[in-house]
Amino acid sequence: MTPYSVLDLAPVPEGATTSEALAQTVTLARHAEALGFHRYWLAEHHAMPGIASAATAVLIGHVAAHTQRIRVGSGGIMLPNHAPLMVAEAFGTLAELHPGRIDLGLGRAPGTDGRTAQALRRNLDVTDNFPADVLELLRYFGEPEPGAIQAIPGQGTRVPLWILGSSLYGAQLAAHFGLPYAFASHFAPPALEAALAAYRQGFRPSAQLDRPRAMVAINVFAGADDAEGRYLRSSAQLAFANLRLGRPGKLPRPVEDISAHVDPGMLRTVDQALSVSATGGPETVRRELAALLERHRPDEVILTGQIHDPVARLRSFTIAAEALASL
């Protein structure tokens, strides 16, 4: 059976507070653990009213403290926003608090707009140091070297690193370093097949991994029937359209007829971005998940679902878990 995991952006629905959204993240994490999900990852985004996971390491620690077995990590930490030593210390601390349960997924994008990126980094006129920063992190999590800077906590914890991406760059880097690779197909699917092929063909075994391990991200909007699945999906469609139009906000309430709220051209763009999805009732979701597994042959899948109603979100992940467990 292909392991299945959760990617949570800690969505803040319209009509809800950030505090309520963070409480629902803990509820979903506990639910996912009970359902047999393998990992629970949180994503770094900044200055977005509908996403409450900006302080990603803090929220990872909170989720890990409220669960018992499920792995908890980042999907991902946007490494250019942070000094590698500070990332190593934060995740080293998490690893010491929750041994054997912490993952560190790394992204190269800012996770925000240009002005906010400048507020995070202060100086955007820097060379892309992502490959060197990844190697620096690997050193910090390994055994201490004489005379080298040490991450304390961090050294010797060997926190597993994942490379995240939506293009060939991340795939080639993960293959070169012999690290597991997760593709952001839940919002940027066009290069999925080419990236997986590049990663698998170019993979070089490393101390962390002896063979390729590729994860594919899938949106799931599962309801009692196909109509309800489409209804739940409309919140994600509206949110994506609003983001593309430069007006990000809280996660919108679902609507019955999405075409009455988003113009045809934008709706085509949104649906292309969300094309790696399983939407509908239990049987439809099972069939669509099976087709995605057959087509891409991932070593693991990570499911996400921007669903407005927290109860419906729990039920959607239940339906998805039952579908994947049966395949």
Short recap of the structure:
The chain has eleven helices and nine strands. It is α/β, with parallel strands linked by helices and about 325 residues long. The chain is globular, with a radius of gyration of 19 Å.
Describe this structure in words.
- There is one protein chain.
- This protein is of the alpha/beta class.
- 44% of the residues lie in helices and 15% in strands.
- The protein contains 11 helices and 9 strands.
- Strands 1-2-3-4-5-6-7-9 form an 8-stranded parallel β-barrel, surrounded by 8 helices.
- Helix 1 (18-35) links the parallel strand 1 and strand 2 (39-42).
- Helix 1 runs parallel beside helix 11.
- The longest helix is centred in the C-terminal third of the chain and has 19 residues, at 226-244.
- The chain is globular and about 65 Å long.
- 47% of the residues are buried.
- The model has no long low-confidence stretch (mean pLDDT 94).
What layout of secondary structure does this protein have?
Blueprint: E1 4-8, H1 18-35, E2 39-42, H2 56-65, E3 71-78, H3 84-97, E4 102-107, H4 114-121, H5 130-141, E5 161-165, H6 168-177, E6 181-183, H7 192-202, E7 214-222, H8 226-244, H9 264-273, E8 277-280, H10 282-296, E9 300-304, H11 310-326
Helix pairs in contact: 1-11, 3-5, 6-7, 10-11
Shape: globular
Q: Number of DSSP helices?
A: 11
Q: Give the fraction of residues assigned to helices.
A: 40-55%
Biggest β-sheet description: 8 strands, parallel, barrel
Radius of gyration: 19 Å
Overall number of strands: 9
Distance between the termini: 7 Å
What percentage of amino acids are in beta strands? 5-15%
